[in-house]
Design a protein that fits this description.
The complex is a heterodimer. Chain A is α/β, with parallel strands linked by helices. Chain A contains nine helices and ten strands. Chain A is 33% helix and 12% strand. Classes of the chains: A alpha/beta, B alpha/beta. At the A-B interface, helix 1 and helix 2 of A face helix 4, strand 9, strand 20 and strand 21 of B.
Chain lengths: 293, 599
């Protein structure tokens, strides 16, 4: 069993533990490479099915190809697709750069707030109706009790600060010093009522592992990750006003893997193309504390 | 390519201030694993603050945690030798951080244990040694550090080796090597120096490279805790897939598998994977999916085993070694949850045999509770029998954790399965399941046909409260609704099936056997898909457990009739003053449990 297979099997095990232990979970799908790998692993774990809803926070500023890709896979893979949006902020132009707020406030409005209220069911959820082929307001407004997310330890520092199963209290606050122990594949699956759980099946994957796996499994990804001939590609995807490509001529999986292995990018943060990170002191600290994922 | 080469996780442990960080810092420096200029920067920083340079500062600087003085969690440090990549999991020595050390150490394949030559063997030297062995790490090298502080004297080293070897012998662990080192001065880390001419063994780096990669335990008996049963019929998928991660051994198509503790068996029909060719077999560490030939009913928590291989143990009573990480002590008579594989089972301490005192070598301390960071030998009693292995036969399926107040607060290994009162009955049920001839129609298809879930409805309560009246009313009511339902009078069983054991008058000594036989009869009718209504006088929780061990426990519902209090989990019906309303309540309960469907 090679390293990638080990990661794959453990992630599948964690997804199955999540499904067996929690009701009303959802999986966040940002359309990016990590959460798409996570989605693929769910199809692996559940033998071609995804037995929980996928939630996408649509900021309305996503690069259009991302939305087309989302809806194509939703139909092809019969996904229970739900998206949420901060309709008010968009209407009132509480956005950047066309509105009158800075990048961080825009992120907070369109992502953090939208996510919080979509998970709680307080704001409308738009669910894909596979019969008519379009999104409809979801009648189900029950809160999701937890989310499965594609966060990786190597994105933001020490593995030791996170767990596969991580409790958050009602305020979504996170007590780093009081993290539960995890050993022998036994995880914290018992929670006091009201606790919100975050599951991180990709915690031990690296950016390189993600691409190696995409290559091995031939997972469809958006073309934005590849150089289209202008010597630029996106390494991390977000809203178009705040996301910049990097200089790279990698045109396919294999070339991206070679680029990562070469160490050419080792001193450049993966999210360096994401302008809001820089504005937040580089660490997403403020955004994350408020519940950004 | 570097990424293809071997990598190994090593945990480093030891008492606080015995120099783990210094050893790690030195390993990083001596293997040229530091970012350019980092070493110089830290030296310069020390010079400016006029404090002596220590390799530990280097580590602290790397972790950017210098302000804390100690590393607060199991962090990872990376370096490589010519042979392989290493990931050092730094288990902080501070006593508060056992939890993090356990999390870190459980990812490790080998351990370095650091002991201060000047201070000698300390409390955490022993505790961590014990924990490492309990966590299942078999390869241990002991570094006797700070040899420079004892003038590199061989007799100091020899004394520590003798003392610690005696301790390790006591817990059945053999160190691969003892190495006298100085992290500060760099002796015997990457190379031997002339400071210790009396030592000619391996260096620390050589000892690391001599650790063996452990292969997944594919050659052991097959063990797979059942994680879930998947049936995605709504998506047009008719497969019924048994999902689980294989702990040890392997399984393939045609293998006969037995599920413990029920003893039900079937044959593997197919191995299921998504977007990959069908594998030859599923083996240790793989997240497997199986379908079976015979449609037997099993649920999460059963242990799948291959017929003809070593049988697992099944018991309610376990002799275990455990460590406790809860601030509140673990005490006898209190309810906890035990997790072994995918089992989650209520458990209590029946007896504390002894608490190991880590501060001296004695293990015979008598205590009434297991306190924070204690390591103890105890007898646990589960509410129901569970399947597992003892640590001697299969370490992986002998490991458990204890949950208290929603948190994992303890962990340990099962040493021995102890006898319990229900053993004989369990054996009978297991034999019955082993020899069960499955009907040609699956349980699910039968349920679909009858539009109901077969269930044993136990109507219980004190004498003369109207149990039989209620039971028959339920039968009548469900029959009118078109259900396949049967009221089984107790006398029918007592004077028939029980004719040989029925005692005259008030003598109730036949009662446990009566309940077993009643449950066996019920089991057959449940298999036939029937909703069965049965009465029993004053059923207790223990008696309900007898029935649960004979009949699939999710097919039993209890109704307690009367004003009297009861500890059993049941729908409580105070009286029969309004039978219509009572029947509505019963109907609602059956609907909520998915036994009959809402119209």
């Amino acid at each position: 069993m090679d390293h990638l297979e080990k990661l794959e099997n453990l992630s599948m095990h964690i997804l199955r533990e999540t499904y067996a232990n929690f009701k009303n979970m959802c999986m966040l799908w940002s359309i990016g490479k990590d959460s798409t790998v996570l989605l693929w692993l769910a199809r692996k774990a559940f033998l071609g099915h995804v037995p929980f809803p996928l939630v996408h926070i649509d900021t309305n500023y996503k690069i259009p190809e991302m939305i087309e890709y989302r809806d194509r896979l939703t139909a092809e893979w019969h996904l229970d697709m739900v998206y949420g949006q901060n309709v008010e902020a968009l209407k009132d132009k509480q956005t950047y750069p066309d509105g009158n707020v800075d990048r961080l406030t825009c992120c907070k409005n369109l992502k953090t707030e939208a996510l919080k209220h979509t998970l709680s069911g307080q704001w409308p959820r738009f669910r894909f109706n596979h019969v008519v082929g379009k999104y409809e307001v979801d009648k189900n407004t029950e809160p999701y009790t937890g989310v499965i997310v594609g966060a990786r330890a190597d994105e933001e520092g020490s593995r030791s600060k996170e767990r596969y199963f991580s409790p958050r209290d009602r305020q979504n606050e996170w007590d780093i010093a009081e993290q539960p122990p995890e050993f022998w594949n036994q995880f914290k699956t018992d929670f006091a009522p009201g606790t919100h759980v975050r599951v991180h099946p990709l915690l031990d994957w690296t950016e390189l592992n993600i691409w190696e796996y995409i290559e091995r499994e031939n997972i469809p990804t958006v073309s934005l990750y590849y150089d289209q001939g202008d010597g630029k590609r996106y390494r991390s995807l977000g809203c178009y006003p705040c996301t910049n490509p990097i200089d790279s001529t990698a045109k396919n999986h294999a070339e991206i893997i070679a680029e990562l292995r070469s160490g050419k990018l080792s001193n450049i943060a993966e999210r360096s193309g994401r302008a809001q990170d820089a504005e937040d002191g580089g660490g997403l600290e403020t955004l994350r504390r408020e519940g950004y994922m | 390519m570097a990424e293809k080469s071997e990598s190994m996780n090593i945990v480093i442990a030891g008492h606080v201030d015995h120099g783990k960080s210094t050893v790690i810092g030195r390993l990083l420096a001596d293997t040229n694993s530091l970012p350019d200029g980092k070493l110089e920067a830290v030296r310069e920083n020390c010079r400016r603050n006029s404090k002596p340079f220590e390799y530990a500062f280097l580590l602290d600087a790397l972790k950017d945690e210098q302000s804390q003085g100690i590393t607060i969690d199991s962090a990872r440090v990376f370096f490589k030798t010519d042979k392989r990549h290493y990931i050092i999991i730094d288990a902080p020595g501070h006593i508060e951080f056992l939890k993090n050390m356990v999390t870190g150490a459980s990812h490790a394949e080998a351990a370095l244990l650091v002991i201060d030559a000047a201070e000698g063997v300390q409390e955490n030297s022993r505790r961590h040694g014990y924990m490492i062995s309990m966590l299942g790490i078999r390869q241990i090298v002991v570094l006797v550090n700070k040899m420079d502080l004892v003038d590199y004297k061989q007799d100091v080293f020899d004394a520590i080796v003798a003392e610690y070897t005696e301790f390790l012998d006591g817990i059945d662990v053999k160190a691969e090597a003892f190495i006298p080192v100085s992290g500060m001065e760099g002796d015997a880390i990457a190379a031997l120096t002339d400071k210790m001419p009396w030592y000619s063994g391996q260096t620390t780096l050589q000892a690391l490279d001599n650790f063996q990669k452990e292969a997944p335990p594919v050659n052991m008996p097959f063990r797979m805790p059942v994680q879930d049963i998947y049936k995605f019929t709504k998506s047009g998928d008719q497969r019924r897939i048994i999902a689980g991660t294989v702990d040890t051994g392997s399984v393939t198509v045609g293998d006969e598998v037995i599920f413990y503790p029920s003893g039900k068996r079937s044959t593997v029909k197919s191995l299921e994977r998504f977007n990959a060719p069908t594998p030859e077999q599923f083996s240790a560490s793989e997240a497997a999916g199986l379908t079976l030939d015979q449609q037997i009913y099993i649920a999460r928590g059963q242990l799948a085993v291959k017929a003809g291989q070593t049988e697992p143990a099944v018991s309610e009573r376990l002799r275990v070694n455990l460590f406790w990480m809860g601030k509140k002590p673990m005490e006898p008579g209190k309810d906890y949850l035990l997790k072994v594989g995918t089992v989650k089972e209520p458990v209590q301490i029946e007896k504390i045999i002894s608490v190991m005192d880590a501060s001296d070598l004695s293990s015979g301390q008598q205590k009434d509770t297991v306190e924070y960071h204690d390591v103890a030998e105890v007898i646990l009693r589960c509410r129901h029998a569970i399947a597992f292995d003892t640590v001697d036969s299969n370490p992986s399926t002998s490991r458990f954790v204890i949950v208290d107040d929603y948190e994992i607060r303890g962990g340990g290994i099962i040493r021995e399965a102890l006898p319990d009162e229900d053993q004989q009955m369990r054996q009978q049920v297991m034999q019955r399941n082993l020899n069960w001839a499955a009907s040609a129609v699956s349980r699910e298809r039968r349920w679909e046909r009858y539009n109901q879930k077969a269930t044993l409805v136990m109507v219980t309560g004190k004498r003369n409260v109207g149990k039989k009246t209620l039971a028959r009313a339920i039968e009548q009511y469900l029959f009118t609704e078109g259900k396949l339902v049967y009221f089984m009078g107790i006398a029918n069983v007592l004077y028939g099936v029980d004719a040989d054991i029925k005692k005259p008058g008030p003598d109730q000594s036949h009662r446990p056997e009566h309940l077993r036989r009643l449950a066996e009869v019920a089991n057959i009718l449940l298999d036939a898909g029937v909703i069965l209504v049965v009465t029993a006088i004053g059923l207790t929780q223990d008696e309900l457990e007898i029935i649960r061990s004979v009949v699939d426990s999710d097919l039993i519902e209890a109704i307690w009739l009367g004003e009297d209090p009861t500890d059993i989990q049941a729908l409580h019906v105070p009286n029969l003053d309004n039978m219509d309303r009572t029947l509505e309540t019963v109907k609602a309960m059956l609907q909520n449990k998915g036994i009959i469907f809402k119209l």
